[in-house]
Amino acid sequence: MIQAYFEGIGKIYHHDHISEATFRVGSLNELDVIIRHFLKHPLITQKYSDFILFKQVIDLIKNKEHLTLQGILKIANIKASMNTKQEIPDIPGIVPVLRASLPIDAHLNLNPY
After folding, report:
1. Is 88 contained in some domain?
2. CA–centroid distance for 7 within its chain
């Protein structure tokens, strides 16, 4: 049902030995579908900030900036800001970017259905 909801993109991997399945997308076109969903239905937790950073990385890749050293450094700086509970390694030249704040009115757009 998840795959159908997201326009049939991605692949479903079944893990019968642990009664679990994984939904994976990989191409930029598939990621665009997921990104459009979360732009229309924003997360209302701190994961919102990680999503915005993730989208910035995808935009850099779409603009082919990841093919340059400067683009790789931009991506590394963004990565250093994601999932902030993780330990950020002290690598010279890597400077975490500012994380987006959750919109003040995010809770007003809640629709459980």
Report:
1. yes
2. 19
Helices then strands, counting H and E runs in the chain, come out as: 4, 2
Cα–Cα distance measured from residue 56 to residue 82, given in angstroms and rounded to the nearest whole number:
11
**pLDDT, tens digit (0-9, with 9 covering 90-100), for 31-62:** 999 999 999 988 888 889 999 999 999 999 99
List the domain range (segments joined by +) for residue 79. 42-101
Residue 53 near residue 98, CB atoms below 8 Å: no
Give the torsion sign (CA, 41, 66, 87, 30). Answer: positive
Residue 89: CATH number of its domain: 3.10.28.10
> What's the whole-model pTM score?
0.75
**SS3 annotation, 64-92:** CHHHCHHHHHHHHHHHCCCCCCCCCCCCC
